[in-house]
Design brief:
There is one protein chain. The protein is globular. Helix 2 runs parallel beside helix 3 and helix 5 packs across helix 6. The longest helix is centred in the last third of the chain and has 29 residues. With 431 residues, the protein is an alpha/beta fold. It has a 6-stranded mixed sheet with strand order 9-8-7-6-10-11, sandwiched between helices. It has a 5-stranded mixed sheet with strand order 3-2-1-4-5, with helices on both faces. The two termini are 36 Å apart. It contains 14 helices and 11 strands. Bound molecules: 5'-O-[(R)-(carboxyoxy)(hydroxy)phosphoryl]adenosine and zinc ion. Zinc ion binds next to helix 4.
C-alpha cells in the first residue's frame, strides 16, 4: 500500500464522469472529466437513462486516464473516494459499484463523499494549492491555513442552491445548513430560461455570454422575500435533489426561490411576442434537438446522435455575434434575468455571513463560473471587508478532484464506508 496520502476520487452524480488523484487533500496530481454535454444538449436537459449509459461507458477509461496522468498505479493509492449522493440514482450507482469493486480488489478503504461537501472542498483544495505555491509550510498556529477559520459556503449549481456554515473541528469539517432554495436551483433557472429562449444546453454559459451585451435594468425583475416559515411547514421542496433538508427550520431570510423569475421570463416572452423568434433560433442552432425520449425508444442511438454530438454551437463572444443570434430586446431580457438572480444570491449570502459573523465566503458549483456573479461578489466583499473565494472554472463545475480532496479529512479520521454503501439520491448535508 502507498504511503503518500494518495486518494483516487470518482464522481458520477449527474452528467460528468470524473476521476482524479489528489495527494493529502492539497495537491492535484490529475483531474479527468468526461462531459456528457454533447449527449444531453440535443434534449435541452439531462436524460437520466442516457447519463447512466454514458457513465458505464466512461468510468473505466476515465479512471485509467486519471492514474496515467498522475503517473501512478493502483498500488500507490491509499484510498478510493466516491460520490454517494445527492444526484441521479442510476448515475451515482455506476460510480459507487465501480469504486466498491476497485476498493475490494485492491484492498483499499472506501470513503463516501456528499457531492455538496465536494463542491465546498473544490475551493479549499485550491486554497491549499495556492498556499503550497506561496510558502512551503503554513505557520505553526495554522494561521493562513484554509482549515483554520469557519466559512459561509454558497453551493450554487444545476441541482442545488444551498448556504452552509462550514466549521473546522479537530481536523475535519462540520456543516450546518443555513439556507436553500424552496423550489428550483439557480442553475436550473438558467437552464430553463436558456431553453425557453432557444439557446444551448447547459444554459448558464450562454446567458453569461449574452448578458454582457444587454441592459441589466431593462426588465425590473424582483424577488419577493419568502414571507413566513409557516407556509412551508410540512411541504416537500420541489428541487431535483436533497429533498429532505428541513426548510421549515431555516431562517426565511436565507431561503431562495427561482421558479417565480422563470415564470416571469416566460410571461415577458409571451407579452412581447418573442416566442416565435426563440423557436426559430432553436431550430436553426439545434436541428437535431428532440424532446425528452421515452427510455428505449427512437432517438437514443444511430447516426443522428453522432451527427448531433459534433459541431455543437458555442455561445457568442462579440456584440456582433450576439446581435446576429437574437434581437437587443432578448439581450436586455437575458441581462435583466442574470442581474436579478445574482443580486438575490448576493443579498442573501452576505446577509447570512453578517448574521453568522462569518468573515469568509466560499462560492462554488457550476453557477460560480458566472462572470457577473464573480465580479459583484468580489466587489461586495471588498466593500464589507470580508474575503470571498471561488474555484477555478474547471473546479466550479462537477469534477472528482473535489471528491478526492473532501475525502482526506475522512481518511485521516478513519471514516470509511462499508460494503453496503449505496446511492442516496437525496442525501442531505448538514442537517
Ligand atoms: O456543478 P454543476 O456542473 O452540476 C451540478 O451539480 O448541477 O453545475 C451545472 C450548472 C448548470 O445549471 C449550468 O447552466 C450552470 O451550472 N453554469 C452556469 C455557468 N456555467 C455553468 N451558470 C451561470 N453562468 C455560468 N457561466
Ligand atoms: Zn455539482
Amino acid at each position: 500500500m502507498g504511503k503518500r496520502g494518495l486518494i483516487l476520487g470518482i464522481e458520477s452524480s449527474c452528467d460528468e464522469t470524473a476521476a482524479s488523484v489528489v495527494e493529502r487533500g492539497a495537491r492535484t496530481l490529475s483531474s479527468v472529466v468526461a462531459s456528457q454535454i454533447p449527449t444531453h444538449a440535443r434534449y435541452g436537459g439531462v436524460v437520466p437513462e442516457l447519463a447512466s449509459r454514458e457513465h458505464l461507458r466512461a468510468v473505466v477509461p476515465v479512471v485509467r486516464a486519471a492514474l496515467a496522468e498522475a503517473g501512478i498505479t493502483f498500488a500507490d493509492l491509499d484510498a478510493i473516494a466516491v460520490t454517494s449522493g445527492p444526484g441521479l440514482a442510476g448515475a451515482l450507482l455506476v460510480g459507487i459499484s465501480y469504486a466498491k469493486a476497485l476498493a475490494f480488489a485492491q484492498g483499499l478503504p472506501l470513503i463516501a463523499i456528499n457531492h455538496l461537501e465536494g463542491h465546498i472542498h473544490a475551493v479549499l483544495l485550491q486554497e491549499h494549492e495556492a498556499l503550497a505555491g506561496s510558502s512551503p509550510e503554513p505557520s505553526a498556529n495554522g494561521q493562513g491555513s484554509p482549515d483554520a477559520e469557519p466559512a459561509l459556503a454558497l453551493v450554487v449549481s444545476g441541482g442545488h442552491t444551498h448556504l452552509f456554515l462550514a466549521r473546522p473541528v479537530r481536523g475535519s469539517w462540520h456543516y450546518s445548513l443555513i439556507g436553500r432554495t424552496v423550489d428550483d436551483a439557480a442553475g436550473e433557472a438558467y437552464d430553463k430560461v436558456a431553453k425557453l429562449l432557444g439557446f444551448g444546453y447547459p444554459g448558464g454559459p450562454w446567458i453569461d455570454a449574452l448578458a454582457r451585451f444587454g441592459n441589466p435594468k431593462a426588465v425590473p425583475f424582483a424577488f419577493s422575500q419568502i414571507k413566513t416559515k409557516l407556509h412551508l411547514v410540512g411541504k416537500t421542496p420541489r428541487t431535483k435533489a436533497a429533498t429532505t433538508a428541513p426548510i421549515a427550520a431555516l431562517n426565511p431570510h436565507f431561503l431562495f426561490s427561482f421558479s417565480g423569475i422563470k415564470t416571469a421570463v416566460l410571461r415577458y416572452v409571451e407579452l412581447n411576442n418573442l416566442r416565435a423568434e426563440a423557436e426559430a433560433r432553436a431550430a436553426r442552432l439545434f436541428p437535431h434537438r428532440f424532446g425528452h425520449p421515452e427510455p428505449g425508444t427512437a432517438g437514443l442511438d444511430g447516426e443522428s446522435l453522432d451527427a448531433a454530438k459534433t459541431n455543437l454551437p458555442k455561445p457568442p463572444t462579440t456584440r456582433e455575434e450576439a446581435l446576429a443570434l437574437c434581437p437587443q430586446q432578448t439581450l436586455d431580457l437575458v441581462a435583466s434575468f442574470q442581474h436579478a438572480v445574482v443580486g438575490d444570491l448576493m443579498k442573501k449570502t452576505f446577509a447570512a455571513a453578517e448574521s453568522l459573523g462569518a468573515r469568509r465566503i466560499l462560492v462554488t458549483g457550476g453557477v460560480a463560473a458566472n462572470r457577473e456573479l464573480r465580479s459583484r461578489f468580489t466587489g461586495e466583499a471588498q466593500r464589507r471587508g470580508i474575503r470571498v473565494a471561488f474555484p477555478t472554472l474547471a473546479l466550479s463545475t462537477d469534477n472528482a478532484a473535489m471528491i478526492a480532496a473532501a475525502a482526506w479529512p475522512r481518511f485521516e479520521a478513519g471514516e470509511f464506508a462499508g460494503s453496503e454503501l449505496s446511492a442516496e439520491p437525496s442525501l442531505p448535508l448538514g442537517r
